[in-house]
Amino acid sequence: MIKIDNVIHTYKKHSDEEVQALCGISLDIQEGEFLVIIGHNGSGKSTLAKHLNTLLIPSEGQVLIDGLDSTDPDMVWNIRSRVGMVFQNPDNQLIATTVEDDVAFGCENLGIESGEIRARVDDALATVGMAGFGNKEPHYLSGGQKQRVAIAGVIAMRPKYLVLDEPTAMLDPRGRQEVMETIHRLNKEEGLTIVHITHYMEEASQADRVVVMEDGKIVAQGCPREIFSQVKLLKSLRMDVPPMTELASILNEAGLEVDKTLLTVEEMVDALC
Amino acid sequence: MLIELKDICYTYKPGTPYETSAIQDISFNVEEGEFIGIIGHTGCGKSTLVQHLNGLLIPSKGEMQLDGIRYFTQQKPNKDLRKKVGMVFQYPEDQLFEETIFDDVAFAPKNFNLGDGLVEEQVRNALEDVGLSYEKYKDRSPFSISGGQMRKVAIAGVLAAQPKILVLDEPTAGLDPKGREEILSRIDLLREKRNITIILVSHSMDDIAAHADRVLVMNQGKIVIDDVPRKVFKEYKQLYDMGLDIPSVTKLMLKLKNKGFDVDTEIFTIEEAAQEILKIKGGASHV
Amino acid sequence: MFRDITIGQYLPGESFIHRLDPRTKILSVLFFMVGIFGLKHLYSYLFVLALTLTVILVARIPLGYLLKGLKPIFIILIFTVGLHLFLTPGQILVEIGPLSITLEGIMKASFMALRLIFLVLFASLLTLTTAPMSLTDGLEKLLAPFAKVGLPAHELAMMMSIALRFIPTLIDETDKIMKAQKARGADFESGNIWQRAKSMIPILVPLFVSAFRRADELAMAMEARCYRGSEGRTRMKQLVYRKTDLIVTLGMGSAMVAAFFFL
Ligand SMILES: Nc1ncnc2c1ncn2[C@@H]1O[C@H](COP(=O)(O)OP(=O)(O)OP(=O)(O)O)[C@@H](O)[C@H]1O
Ligand SMILES: Nc1ncnc2c1ncn2[C@@H]1O[C@H](COP(=O)(O)OP(=O)(O)OP(=O)(O)O)[C@@H](O)[C@H]1O
Ligand SMILES: [Mg+2]
Ligand SMILES: [Mg+2]
3-class SS at A103? Predict the structure, then answer.
């Protein structure tokens, strides 16, 4: 379990100006959970994500990963091998010149023995559906493929938690779908805990739990149905709701009663028939 | 006719092992004041196509005419063309370079030799057009503002040259939902206020459905459908085959029709859908 | 234009040359470089030519592809040839105005040109037959003895492999920024040298900004994957120095010593 307790994070800029990006965040992330964080640009999502694997440490408060304190310098590598992280720009996180060398990179840093790395790399590439691409150069892959390679590089390290900071932001719909399918499968089949950050509401509606952030604070959390039925609140936070939920809300206002918490086209069809 | 393209082909790196024929035999016309949406799966040649419109790429084959300027294969386009067609690339904030927002937005008008007084006026107009206050922002550094604001400044930097045609290649990627809607409604406003012709490349069917009045569907370097949105989204089977989607409200209407409801399936916005559902279900709600 | 350069590109393959240890190949190129500047006679060039052709054949690299890689050095080639052709004193053959071509000049110019061509061909062969990662691994291993005197061998090798990885990305980036500024009316082609240099600012500034951001994000991504330098790091692909490697290295070394002193 990851326990975030009253975390405040302050960035110091060059001009001694201070920006408080996180203002007292408390959040527990359960094992096996699929958690989605949404929030407007600059609401502190990335800052929070970087606290989960000690890329940043809290200015105040505490982050415990399986009971390990993120401020303890001796625990840094232990924590990072438990919490894998995938970033937004697929071009800026692939390090090596071939796919398999890149996937091996994390394992090599963990000091794993060569034959074992080979096995893990092949395994990880198969899991993300990229078997057979081992010798390709990252430059020749599509965006969705690059992100899946990045995910493979992380899961080859066998982490318990996978944090993804807008991995779909730079992808086209097909690439986005590839990535989403991959992480849902990892969650269901491998039992990986997922923390997924996104601006796409349809991705959020597939989560176990949605956390909404605004200006460094958590302003709402709950299952997607609870969250998205609050159309007005979300719109006031620069967020959106899935189109069917919005439609349901308009229909209700016009006097036609349908379930306000529905999320998908299928549910809407059922509600109307 | 404002824009006319005839049998345009473009091949990257001809004569090398990396040769790629990106677009083939593209022909279409655009009238002044139209809002054209271009959709298609990744790598189908959308960006390649739009880069022809202001001469950044010169067709390997074919000819085109743009607001009276004609140009052909291998003929160097003149500067007038660049001024007439504003081009907003993906992640346009990557092009910012000046020390102040004023200087950055003034880059294009200065390059196109507008007079000094005019430059200032254009910068002011452009910033207000994207919804940023001129007085508040002109002296700030373009690197000290938020991502969404940088995007707006970059778009202002293109608008400041007073283009007749504005081409936007996925202008909303990476913005939060409100930021996306802000940019798109600004674009609608521009068209109304300044009668600018808009060409929008997007992966979002909902955005295209809500804003464009004509849609070009591209597949493997060719235009396969060129029609108004209601006709385009009717071809949902063909779109699915190309890996494209249709707006979710259209999907809903199609499913309702399948279930035997007498509904209009040419519906693309949530408001329209609500109207239509209330029409068929209206009776049920008066309990 | 950048794509024509064969130096630095890798053509995957399974040939004998491909399978040699990168250290063997790096050392061989080193020997070759030294050796080639010792060559004095025409027949020694024939020997080197035969050697190069053999390597090309064994590595199964298309000759046309390899020769295309010579294009970028064409200007240097002409410059060097011109220099030697006109500036070598000796028996005058032709006089064109103040310039004179001598027999010695012709000899020297063609030797110089041949040396350059062989050098580039051989260096290209190294990168064409060696995956960039294994090239940097080899370099790291070769430099390892110097780490004791403070040479950051691992860091150098890592930097080199990252540079290789990012060259295509940076080329794309430059292309994109150039297009964006051209669309805003920027003109990179006209004006005097000063104006042209100034016109590069709108490209260089965004390029630097993005390069720094990239570096930042890359460092973060590496740290997130537990990178902490060479300490405790293992490798998936371990270099194995076989007997054939030893034979090739020694063979190449002695061939070049022979070429240097006796041919
Ligand atoms: N390195 C930094 N130095 C100073 N301020 C920073 C830094 N990184 C982020 N900030 C500021 O902290 C706040 C939160 O930023 P953060 O990147 O966490 O937001 P976000 O929710 O991830 O936004 P986005 O949706 O745009 O990715 C913002 O106001 C931002 O300007
Ligand atoms: N500079 C280039 N050199 C070589 N090939 C290129 C270049 N740019 C694009 N291509 C190729 O041309 C084809 C069309 O690319 P283009 O960028 O126009 O597609 P797109 O529809 O804009 O895709 P996306 O939705 O991913 O932006 C692709 O196959 C691409 O690989
Ligand atoms: Mg972020
Ligand atoms: Mg594109």
Answer: helix
Mean pLDDT of chain B: 89
Q: At what angle do helices B248-258 and B270-285 cross, to 10 degrees?
A: 40
Pairwise CA distance, residues C44 & C40, whole Å: 7
Burial of C134 (0-12, 13-18, 19+ CB in 10 A): buried
Q: Hey, is B62 helix, strand or coil?
A: strand
Q: How far apart are CA A19 and CA A13, in angstroms?
A: 8
Reported as a single tens digit per residue, the pLDDT across C185-226 is 888 877 788 888 888 999 999 999 999 999 999 999 999 999
Write down the ipTM of this complex. Answer: 0.90
The residue segments making up the domain with residue C25 are: 2-261
In the predicted model, is pLDDT for residue A171 greater than 70? yes
- Quick one: residue B248, left, alpha or beta (phi over 0 = left, psi -120 to 50 = alpha)? alpha
Over the stretch A79-127, which tens digit does the pLDDT of each residue have?
999 999 999 999 999 998 889 999 999 999 999 999 999 999 999 999 9
- Out of A85, A95, A139, the one facing C218 most closely (by C-beta) is A95
CA distances (Å), origin A184, targets A188, A194, B207? 6, 8, 27
Q: Is C190 on the interface with B (CB under 8 A)?
A: no
pLDDT at B123 over 90: yes
Sequence-distant (≥ 6) Cβ neighbours of residue B163 within 8 angstroms:
B83, B84, B85, B86, B196
Query: Does the beta carbon of B130 lie inside 6 Å of ligand 2?
Result: no
CB B153 within 8 A of CB B137: yes
Which among A77, A97, A157 is the nearest to C165, CB-wise?
A: A97
Domain ranges across chain A: 32-55+72-223
Which parts of chain C sit beneath pLDDT 50? Answer: 1-3
Please give the tally of structural domains in chain C. 1
pTM (predicted TM-score): 0.88
Q: What is the CATH number of domain A32-55+72-223?
A: 3.40.50.300
